[in-house]
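Form 7-S
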Amino acid sequence: MRGLITSYILIFSFFSSSQEPLFTLLDNSKIGINFSNDLIDTEEHSIFLYANYYGGAGVGIGDFDNDGLEDIFLAANMIDDKIYRNLGNFQFEDKTKMSGIINNGSWSTGVTVADINNDGLLDIYVSCELYDDRPILRKNKLYINQGEFKFKESSEKWGVDIDRRTRHAVFFDYNNDGLLDLYLLNHPPNTGNFSPFLGSNMKLPEYNLQLFENKGNYFIDVTEPAGLNRSGYPNAAVIGDFNKDGWADIYVANDFDAPDFLYFNNQDGSFEYKTESSLRHTSFYSMGVDVADINNDSHLDLMVLDMTAEDNFRLKSNMSGMNPDSFWSVVNGGGHFQYMFNTLQLNNGNNTFSDIAQFTGTAATDWSWSSLVADFDNDGNKDIFITNGLLRDIRNTDADKKISDLVSKKINDYIIKNPNNSDISLWEVVDLQELLDILPSQKLKNYYYRNNGNLNFTNITELSGLDQPSFSHGASYVDLDNDGDLDLVVNNVNEKAFVYRNNSEKNKNNHIRLKLLDKNPTYGTKVSLYTVDDFQYFETTNVRGIYSNSENIVHFGLGTDNSIDSIIIEWPDSKIQKIIKPEINKLHEIRNKGNDVKKLYKNENEVKFTELKSVINHIHQENYFNDFDKQVLLPHKLSQLGPALAKGDVNGDGLDDIFIGGASGQSPTLYIQTEKQFVNSSSNTWLRHKALEDIDAVFFDSDNDGDLDLYVVSGGNEFSHNSSTYLDRLYINDGQGNFTFNRDLLPTIFESGSVVKPNDFDNDGDIDLFIGSRMKPWNYPEPASSYLLVNKNGKFTIHESSSVFNEIGLVTDAEWIDYDQDGDQDIILVGEWMPITLIKNNKGIFEKLELNTNLGCSSTGWWNSLEVSDLNNDNLPDLVVGNLGLNYKYKASVDEPFELFYDDFDKNGSKDIVLAYYNYGIQFPLRGFSCSSQQVPDLKDKFEKYDIFASLDVQQVYGEDNLENALRLSVNTFESASLINNKDFFDFKPLPTYAQFSSVNDMIIQDFNDDNIKDVLLIGNMYHAEIETTRNDSGNGLLLIGNNDGSFKEISTYESGFFVPGDSKKIISIETNDDKLYIVANNNDRVQIFK
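Output:
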């Protein structure tokens, strides 16, 4: 909510100072560009033969005549490609006729502009595709610039007249020899529903993408030795030095089930495929991609587009939902984890990326094509422009079924009437226009997100002047009038191209622009800009978005900064050039006069953590269980919440030992610390409990004999309610680290547990226990009961005040705390769908209250973790609470909570889960028609069509009375936060931005930098989301340095060295003879240890 208000203030102040929107759409007839990429379907070639028939074409930008004005090339599918000379003042001249541009009926898609022969003149490469039956029309074209707007088609001479259905191409110097090489995004046959290639093998070698090395005046194919011989469905690619080693790396956005390709340059002429190790997930229908440093940390980030709609109706009518079997088939078949959302991959600075599209609000922009990331308003932050729209909604579920039924009926009727005549074409039986009329057609607005800083983005499309509905595809940014701001050129289908004039020069923001000049290509040049308070970073590259390239100028907006301290340029030859106090609001021509310095960037930050990979070789092995077989509409699995992790000196040698729990089927392990290493304990008492799921554990002295016993919480969701597999265990230590199990010491409690917290709350000299319950297995989200166990001479019984914990909720964590300083130990509880709950202890009588905060509403969340410490040195206990985070599909606020309804809606004897969310102020069912009707089959008979279901709110679907009688749970916030104790209330302070990138599952609060102020080291992620929701996997672990007021400064992964990217559940710290170690237990992964 605070971020929303801040964004509104920023937007209001921006537009109130402007007399007109940021962009103005210019009249095509007045500027001289009347190009329209017109498409029609024919019986020979149509959307039913080629799936990308409506995919549009690109824009090429370059100063082809070196007159200081950027010119425009517009590619076309069925009409002629066009080239326009910029005459200045937004006047253009069509130079196509005498230019040498060949229009032979080929289907042009991508256009790439670069000086491939280093003669100072920009050349053009046009990518051609489709036309399965006419390979000669698929040959790409290379236009060598002869000067004065004359070009010579020379693709055959240069060896790049390729006919492999190339969608786009990118020039870059892959081997740092000063010559531009060529990478081709080749496609297999682009199969529509009636394509003769449908069902054929799409991974044949002839469909591979290709790399060609520039030998000076010709190219040779080096795909095989470069290690790039993969096929896919590439829509776009970008080049950047993602790991800052001085060599160009590759990112390819692949459509359909092919994974996106991330290749790191090995510096020896070859590349290494790193998608799975560097990207935790990707978009599914990856479309356009751009590369830029979006948060000004000197690391290149990636914006990849997909096809998921933002509004509820289009979301549910055009996508039938992801089939779980199909999803896992892709994953297990090498396609990696793919989700139907845009991804904004934030570079972690260590060869990995974290997707933050949900956090930034940029995850769903409908059927999107081109993403352009640049500072369009010159405020010093890079914004995002996205093109959108498809001529016909070919994935409308109802239309698809109707077409299938109609075609089947027409064919069957024809066969019945003409049993002896089968040698005819489809279109002699079926009317093409009749099929086309079934497909809905809706123009969509493009998207514009303003970057407010700190990764806060706001959709201001309606206010920006970019809100014309269209079918927009390729796009480029370029300063067409040399006024210091970035204009836009957009290639549309069946509509004249958009040329937008940028009006930001009227908002008084400053800028600087650099035109880089060298005898060799300047792509890959890295430019760092320093002002008194700010830093910006820019790296040049050839193509951006989809099918297109933008201007090759380094552009920095400066906001209100009126001076620059310095600019440092690292040229592709690794030479460094420094420019002191350059003049602003000017285009500078900069020639390479750098010094021979091999490395510019040095990480001068102190690395606080080092991972030790050989201390303990332990891997948690999660058992397979499909929770969704029990409850189809679960929001996430509940059977993958371990492992338990505990520390304690079990043998009295003064060294902490470690207990790591197992999943069902894996025995837990006790590691004994010696002076040199950790060794596996010989005690094997817990082998008999191998079938149980270990969720939490704690060492404590249960029987007051001076040694540490072990309590293990049993949990999970694999077994039915009231199964003995949910019984917790107490193992008694003989003082030497040998344990025995005694069932009689604990009461019989069949809850699936989550947490155990020891404390002598009754002050009788022995340790009592709070036991938190996570769920009722197979009955999510029915509230579970937790328990207070009182210790009587080593035997535990349920305390008489435990009734306060009856059906208290889905508890995830708890802490003992004397919050009111009255000498009694109280309990703070957190959980899923729960408020932060205070169990107040009044001399042994417990009362349930909601913790008093300044949120202004109930603190309900999906809380995962809780720690207590004095964060501001006022001698009062404060809290840090870990929530789901803000980088998830689910959103919540006071006005628009995320909700769940639970009841037997179809009266079939089993209760149903209905998750509900708000979309443009209306509450809808979260899940689509397909999976909703799987849970409640009556819906299929009641509504029949996807369009009908998509148009109905949650009350209309399930009935207002039915929802009134259901269990209703709400979440008001998903933010992780600190809560500062002000005696009469707790001040809720959201944790910093990076702490909101994923769920926070556990944390340690200590003073890490020796300033006598408490800091936080946190871990998280949730890998077990249902497959239509992107798993919560963008957390890397995070160090937060305390400011002594409950706020924190975040220390990035590459600064701290603390990198925990897995499904991390528990963290503890232990002392060894030499160091303090931090142990992280990951679900279904290895244990990590840091010092």
